[in-house]
Amino acid sequence: MAIAAAHSFISSSNLSFIPSHTFHHRRHHHRPQSPFKISAHISLTTPPSPTVQPKLNNTGVIVVGAGLAGLAAAIRLHSDNIPFLLVEASDAVGGRVRTDNVDGFLLDRGFQIFITGYPEARKLLDYETLDLQKFYSGARVYYGGGFHTVADPLRHLADAIQSLTNPIGTIVDKSLIALTRIRVLTQSDDQIFSAEETSTIDLLKRIGFSDSIVDRFFRPFFGGIFFDRDLETTSRLFDFIFKCLALGDNTLPAKGISAIPEQLAAKLPSNSIILNTPVASIDKQESDSKSESTYTVRLNNGEVLTSDYGVIVAVEEPEAVKLLAGKSNGFPAQIRKPARSTVCLYFSADRSKVPVHDPVLFINGSGNGIVNNMFFATNVAPSYGPAGKVLVSVSLIGLHEGVSDEDLRSKVVDELSSWFGKEVAGSWTHLRTYRVKFAQPNQCPPTDLRKNPKVEPGLYVCGDYRTSATFDGALVSGRKAAEALLRDRSLVQAS
């Protein structure tokens, strides 16, 4: 589940740059006198046109990367009227949080669910406008040739009572889940992120969960969230996610997961985002005063952007390493842990060929096969597909390198035929396969989920790899990077 932006129904939305306009302002004068002019063009059918770049431009702050972290940083700067430019290499905002429109279906790029209990997201997003569609609070576990329900007793009491004696854990296990819920709800987020840590699997064993519930529920459920079926991910992240699940719902925005970054981008001035603009390097400008260090951003075409206050690097970790390795002792020269990867396959089906109508997540508790989890997306959000059609989303953990897309499709259909019957799964039409190499940062212990965003004065970094590998972590990281810059430059406005 990515926690972590193309567009859903607006798959070709594009902001095109009109060149030769430069910010001119004196220090502490936060309104640009000659703003960049960017016109918005929305097209449902044509691909985005290339963006024309400026020859040389200056602004207050340059934010590199328009994923959730970069958007959050820009929103925080904008709230203090600090001029900025948000530069994005791809054709739309959102980074990994993207949706494609394929034959009338909304395909999120990888398995992504939005949890309404995220605290930072509650501050930044308008949930009502997102039209969030809820999953069933629990899961249906495939084990022993059949399906067994695990339900949240506070939301589905009758289902929870019926599931007490099913083979997905013992009655004691289900009591321990309730106690874990109480434990995380009585801790602040700061307490969770600074607590003594271990791996999630060791935490579950220490709590006393049986092997049956660990293997049949926790591995596929939280393994699907972390893209880590071994559950080596830090217990801090497990506790935070568990808390957010207790406080909110698993949802999908009606217009696709990309509706989230699109809503954030709509909070920003229309002339502040440049798309289709890859960055080649970030270079320090020598200065006699260390506190007044400035950085330039060189684009792939050789043109340069300059900033008065600093640069915020908001790209995913592999790209940040490429841009910043060797630039400062304050940033690592390489990624120390392998990233989490996933493959997501989408199929279309006729409504008559899908025997399930519940908005429930199916997880593989059998210990066999390559499918980790799947669901019928149109059961959750009917807007994810055309009328009379069903969108099937299937998630695998890892990249499955060396296996072709066609072989993966065949293996998945064969496996799900054992779940739902060959006459059902065999009738589905493959739409697309996404292989997401960097789905999430690897957050195995030891971790620091509250990293300082400042690399050095004038240069800041943000992203979910700096905090928690969640949507919320990216948003928090972006805000904190902007606030660090504002403090360093004494630009924080009095409240």
UniProtKB/TrEMBL annotation:
Highest taxon, organism lineage: Eukaryota
Protein name as it appears in the record: Uncharacterized protein
